[in-house]
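Long-time lurker, first post. I've been practising inverse folding by hand and with some scripts of my own, and I keep getting stuck on stretches where the structure tokens seem ambiguous. Below is the full token string for one chain I'm working on. Before anyone asks, I'm not after the true native sequence, just a reasonable design that respects the backbone. If someone could post their per-position residues I'd love to compare against what I wrote down in my notebook.
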């Protein structure tokens, strides 16, 4: 029997707001070097402490929602989800169940060559719990994270393979960074994922019992967990068994999952509207002001289809906002997408990648304006493309004005044809034997003539013009 994989994702993304969700305490992961140093009354649930919603959280959640092409609701509401756990000091989590901040969006991503669309059901915002660590003899609790804002992004069961899931998550990460909503760094617990998996016979459209794998937080882990769960379910179905609807935990070291709770002992969270917070009402204007026109995937397709870049180059140049903005500005000033891309990829990125500092295009010594000047000089035959690379290298290390660098380093290309004719004449006069051989059919000697002309002009002659003059003189001869 052949099975089709059906997966839906619930992804938690930490909102990168300055303050936590319901109070003035910093929402800074950087502060979390030591446990329990970033704890204030509201997040600790101290008696009498009342929450007030941070506007920064709403701002970024709306931006993220636009990035996922959601309908943002002007009215949403918070709900109280009660459960007991030591790292949940209030005894309940404030979340949104009945009226989430946004609904009905989608994310487009390339899976291999194919552009796929994954539907997103809803995004709600909620406060994180603290963290606990258990050893054999004791449990430790850290409240630094308590009250930090999260977005839970829930998809439809639209994924049909592990690759679908991984490409969705990579694109989601890019969108979160592009919109400024979150760095979405998995290692820093800014993005984690619950993966719901079921199988069905190929060709069928039923939705069978699903298993939810909780709290996965690396691409490798997610890949391994999906493979193992698919295998586990195939084995059950192949033996005519049924898959229980349950929540399982993934043990990455052991390479297997274990049951956490089954459908029967699913928790009753006693949801009800949060009495300590008013509904969240925002204007359509507030929503519209935060729209984002172009996403990474839109830029990638533009680079590919309109600007005719190679697929890998289009992917790289659209993947990160500062680099992509740098590239777009350069193209706007040159109208030369390919030449601009080439200098960024083969010179700037290539050099930056050799260093171990994080690459940030917004703080480079070379500006898009300077790079555009270089591109335009190549376009106007003022410098050769080899020399352009040299100028970009200097600009990257020292900054400065391309014109001044070109003059200082004697890199300007000579396009003066009468001077170049003289060089060609001199080169030909010194090579009678080669001319004879060339005319007798040894045509690859042409490169020898061009090379000598370039040498004679100290690299400043335009090779295109030399080629023209040489062709004329050698065929006339
Ligand atoms: P809830 O947890 O609120 O009951 P659902 O069960 O409908 O909501 O969905 C939770 C997540 O599980 C969603 O991401 C959804 O796409 C996914 N999902 C629902 N049914 C299935 C299924 N049969 N197989 C795989 N994923 C599913
Ligand atoms: Mg769920």
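-- Answer (accepted) --
I ran through it position by position. Result:
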């Amino acid at each position: 029997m052949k099975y089709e994989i059906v997966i839906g994702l619930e992804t938690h993304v930490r909102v990168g707001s300055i303050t936590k969700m319901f109070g003035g305490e910093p929402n800074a992961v950087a502060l979390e070097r030591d446990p329990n140093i970033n704890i204030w009354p509201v997040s600790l649930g101290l008696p009498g402490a009342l929450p007030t919603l941070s506007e920064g959280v709403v701002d970024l959640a709306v931006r993220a929602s636009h990035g996922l092409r959601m309908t943002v609701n002007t009215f949403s509401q918070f709900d109280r989800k009660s459960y007991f756990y030591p790292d949940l000091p209030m005894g309940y989590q404030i979340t949104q169940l009945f009226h989430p901040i946004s609904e009905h969006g989608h994310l487009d991503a390339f899976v291999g060559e194919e552009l796929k669309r994954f539907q997103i059901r809803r995004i709600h915002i909620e406060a994180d719990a603290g963290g606990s660590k258990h050893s054999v003899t004791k449990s430790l609790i850290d409240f630094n994270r308590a009250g930090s804002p999260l977005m839970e992004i829930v998809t439809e069961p639209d994924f049909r393979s592990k690759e679908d899931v991984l490409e969705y998550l990579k694109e989601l990460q890019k969108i979160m960074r592009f919109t400024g909503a979150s760095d979405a760094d998995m290692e820093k617990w800014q993005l984690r994922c619950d993966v719901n998996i079921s199988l069905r016979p190929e060709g069928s459209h039923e939705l069978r019992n699903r298993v939810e794998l909780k709290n996965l937080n690396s691409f490798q882990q997610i890949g391994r967990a999906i493979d193992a769960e698919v295998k586990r379910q195939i084995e059950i179905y192949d033996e005519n068994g049924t898959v229980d609807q349950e929540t399982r935990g993934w043990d990455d070291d052991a390479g297997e999952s274990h049951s956490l709770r089954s459908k029967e002992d699913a928790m009753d969270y006693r949801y009800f509207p949060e009495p300590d917070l008013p509904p969240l009402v925002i204007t359509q204007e507030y929503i519209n002001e935060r729209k984002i026109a172009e996403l990474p995937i839109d830029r990638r397709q533009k680079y590919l289809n309109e600007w005719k870049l190679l697929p890998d180059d289009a992917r790289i140049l659209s993947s990160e906002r500062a680099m992509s903005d740098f590239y777009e500005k350069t193209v706007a000033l040159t109208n030369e997408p390919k030449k601009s891309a080439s200098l960024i990829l083969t010179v700037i990125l290539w050099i930056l990648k050799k260093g171990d500092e994080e690459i940030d295009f917004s703080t480079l010594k070379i500006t898009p304006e300077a790079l555009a000047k270089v591109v335009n000089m190549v376009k106007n035959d003022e410098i050769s493309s080899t020399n352009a690379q040299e100028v970009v290298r200097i600009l990257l290390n020292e900054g400065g004005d391309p014109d001044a660098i070109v003059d200082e380093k004697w890199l300007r290309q000579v396009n003066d044809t009468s001077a170049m004719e003289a060089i060609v004449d001199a080169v030909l006069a010194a090579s009678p034997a080669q001319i004879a051989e060339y005319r007798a059919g040894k045509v690859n000697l042409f490169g020898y003539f061009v090379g000598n002309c370039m040498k004679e002009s100290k690299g400043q002659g335009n090779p295109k013009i030399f080629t023209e003059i040489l062709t004329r003189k050698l065929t006339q001869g």
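A couple of notes from the structure itself: The longest strand covers residues 114-127. Residues 3-289 form one domain. Happy to go over any region you disagree with.
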